[in-house]
Amino acid sequence: MRNTKITETILFSILFLFFLQSLSDFIEAIYAFGLLVTAFTIEVASITLLFTPLLLLALRKAPSRPFLLGLSMIAIAARLVEPMLGPGGKLVACGISVGAFMLLFPLLLHRRANIRGWRATNGLAIALSLSIFLRTANSSLDLSESGIFQVISWLPGIIAGSLLWRMDLSAPNEPSAGRAAAGRRMTGLAIGLASIILMMYFAFASPAVIARWTGSSYPAILVTLVAVLVVFGILLNSERFSAWLTQRVVLGWNILFIALLVLTILPHQIAFPSSQDAYPLDAPGASPLAGIFLFLMLVSSPILFVNFILFIREISLERPSQPQIGGSFAVAALFFLIMVFFHVFTTIYDYVPVIGPFFRDRFWFVYLLTGLGMALPLLLLRKGSFSLKRPEVASPFLPLALGSLALLSIAALYLAAARPVTPHGAAPLKIMTYNIQQGVDVEGNKSLETLLAVIRAVNPDILGLQESDTARVANGNVDAVRYFADKLDMYSYYGPTTTTGTFGIALLSKYPIRNPATFFMYSTGEQTATIHAEISRDGETYQVFVTHLGNGGPMFQVEDVLPRMEGLENVITMGDFNFRPTTDQYALMTRTLADAWLLKWPGGKEAPEFSSDKRIDYIFVSPGLTVLESEYKVHPASDHPYAYIVVEP
User: Fold this and answer.
1) Closest Cα partner for 261 from 364, 132, 408?
2) Helical (H) or strand (E) element with 187
3) What are the residues whose beta carbons fall under 8 Å from the beta carbon of 86, sequence distance 6 or more?
4) What is the pLDDT of residues 419-434, one digit of tens each?
């Protein structure tokens, strides 16, 4: 019995991990195609794969064992091959994997769910811990999807296939008769399960996401989260803890978690003034109370697993028919998709007519809706269903597994962290600016590793990044800035938090970054911001600005930026300005600062792949700085060229 319990827990942990990975890559691949404005019909077709549970409406007989095994193998195999494919193939493979899992899970939960509810919940907790470890080991980019490390996924895939082959896939219990309300109840329970997966996908499977909401310590967040998971694993084995979880406690715990989640986000959410006179607007600092809300939210997060097991057990008691469970999970898939769209809208609101502007400055609202989707279905549970009394003897396997993964994650955090070593000497200073197009190359591939190689080849002392806010669902919840800083051993400043709806700017440096601050410019479309920081070397202090103006490089945004540079010496201003050298904005900018390209090439310089009169990415400097070198280079890792200059110390 114990061996069966452990093997089924291992199986569910692998399946849930693969599902979270496939889902993340699927949404990222769809967004990448949209970013390139290509293959819209493929996008539409691929989204429909979320609704595979609708197939159960047509299946009057329980699927056979060969059908379930085949479906499982498709889900696993598609997950294993998708990281090796190009954009189109990856989109299709991810979609197939997600669609197969969306059909497989309700079928598995339909069989002996009362017992397997515990094993599925244990598996989900381990899957979350595995995801945290794999992302921590590679600075938020899933290690199992990176280069040669892709083989990491193959062993679990083989194990899952073997366990599925030996798993008891006997037919489910006969559905209950004469219960018209069963379908409505099932729909609510399915939405509750979907909301739990959403919450993990949105934030907890990649703790770097929460760190970028708040600008708080990533190590502190990660250590707290994995420690909480271990403690919960221990408590879940305790009969006293199970007896304590009454209906009132569970409902109160849900309300507390949702409130703390919203209160974690709100202090970092800026209600941007509509008056242009209010800009430039300095980013307000958060009070210490915000940190307390964050810590308490992490401590209360295990309610996700409590709800998960309660919903699965209620499904078992409900004994739904196959069409009922299929229709319910299809409705849950629709809720899931809507929440994903809402999350994406908080950044791209300017590009979504009518509905998009509602989500400007409402990042918190998406999490409130998801939290309610998780909590409200609890009202559908029978009062006696809130007991978590086990149908089987408790096992130490869960706390041991979670404890081991917690130690691995903490070790990986230490090993992956940046260790900047400040250069000494009076060598020329190299400054680079790069719009990384949200970590997507010109063909739609995730390009962080290629971008890293480009940056390494240039070897800048100071690096400004634009479109670097990748720690969100549209980009696979990968923190590009942390990834580059760790791999390059550089100091970093992220700029505006992800709750503000910008596309992200960041500053990295081999030298310590002093007094970093962010201010916002007036924006009628996408929100824009600028970083200002000081970097000192050998007694010389440079005033460094990194910015990304809105579409067309609006004059009013230039007018917001320039006053912050008045009276400063050794100014270096870089970024994507979105205006060309022939515009009035460029003329205004060069009244104060010099175009570093023209300081080096006053007579002009052209290259076959680059035309200087089409520039929108610039490095502007104080006129007194001597520019020894200035180059623009085109590389397919991004749709923007990168620029770098070398200045006298």
Assistant:
1) 364
2) helix 182-199
3) 443, 445
4) 999 888 778 999 999 9
- Give yes or no for a contact between 269 and 363, defined as CB atoms under 8 angstroms apart: yes
Six-digit token pair at 570? 């050794």
User: What are the tokens at 178?
Assistant: 């004469």
Strand, helix or coil at 307?
helix
Rounded Cα distance between 511 and 51, Å, is: 51
Q: How many CA atoms, within 13 angstroms, populate the side-chain half-sphere of residue 314?
A: 27
Q: Which amino acid is at 359?
A: F
Q: Return the bridge partners of 464, or none.
A: 433, 507
Q: Shortest CA distance to 340 belongs to which of 451, 230, 466, 473?
A: 473
* Contact in structure between 298 and 264 (CB atoms under 8 Å): no
Which of 445, 310, 454 minimizes the C-alpha distance to 374?
A: 310
Q: Are 558 and 589 in contact (CB under 8 A)?
A: yes
Q: What tens digit of pLDDT does each residue of 439-463 get? A: 988 888 888 999 999 999 999 999 9
94 alpha-carbon distance from chain centroid: 17
- Is the sign of the CA dihedral 469, 474, 479, 480 positive or negative? negative
Query: Are 503 and 438 contacting, i.e. CB atoms less than 8 angstroms apart?
Result: yes
Q: What is the pTM of this model?
A: 0.94
For residue 596, give both structure tokens: 């570093």
Enumerate residues 6+ apart whose C-beta is below 8 A from 353. none
Residue 244, amino acid: W
State the Cα–Cα distance between residues 524 and 553, nearest whole angstrom: 12
Beta partners for 541? 536
Q: Are 339 and 201 in contact (CB under 8 A)?
A: no
